[in-house]
Design a protein that fits this description.
350 residues; alpha/beta; Rossmann fold; 9 strands
Length: 350
Amino acid sequence: MTFESACAGELCGEDRDCEENLRFGFPVFLPEGAPDPRCDDLVVILNGLNETAYIKLFPWALNLARLTGRPTAIFPTAFHLNRRPRSWLPAAQALYRERAALPGNHKASPYNAALSQGLSARPGRFFRGGLQTCGDLKALARSVREGSHPQLSAVLSREARMHFLGYSAGGYVALVLLLADEEGLFRGSRCALFASCADRDGVDPGSILILDSEASARVMDYYGGGGYAGDEDAEVRDWLVNRPEGVWFRKILGGRLAGAGLGGRVMAAVGAKDKVIAADSVVRTLRGVPVEVMDLGIHEYPFNIAGPLEEAYASSAARALLREIGESAGIGASYRGPFEAFIRKVANFL
């Protein structure tokens, strides 16, 4: 399916003209047999932070489409998957050397260098990208209602509801959409959160596959209220206080969701040993929401790699990691049972 974002105004000026982030395609898995009449529901999977390839998410989407009988889309968040600038890849090695040279900067790697550089310079980019993604998904929901998306309209009725499987950072986007829904676009929507929506004390994005330690500290300090003197993004500061999306995002990070009315609309699952999103923090933050704590692999590859992930990047270990990632494009043999249980729970809930 194709999409063109009209929400670049949410980004900082230098990020607004990235062609890949504005015009892109996204995959939709259809259940067996042509929908007739058109389906009344669409499942949308939202990716995690620094996600670069769809392939890990393909089994999730394929099995959700099969079990729910509903079209299932993987919608890329801003500057992720095929919305990432092509220039990031050739710049990765040089940026890695620059990031690794920063005193005390652990977990720097070619995999996380581009995102780390961008978020370290402007931590407000994280929220801006989330706002653009929220705006894109609202526009997608409107196009379904209006029957104006030429491809989705062929498989969805105008009454179709969008339901979400929000993974990691994508879960925060999905939950904010449900909570800050002033237009009522998602009034009938449900949301499954996976390894997501811990409060601030339970989040550590420092990983050779996500952010280096310097960028992680900048981002967490910024959204923890301490601020970052080098960032002059007064617009984001205002949005975090005065826009509904910002208010709810801060409430999630602050663990202040009591009375949010999530009962029956949200479920969650998290790995018991997740080092990025702590299981006890998810349970604490989502009080009143059923949370399944599961025995899974590492946060970045929960159904594929047992870990532990290397704390510091080394080229030899990286080659082995790449091989393991490549060989685990499907579901790892030891995680097939947990994966099937997880997908069935999500499918039955949505």
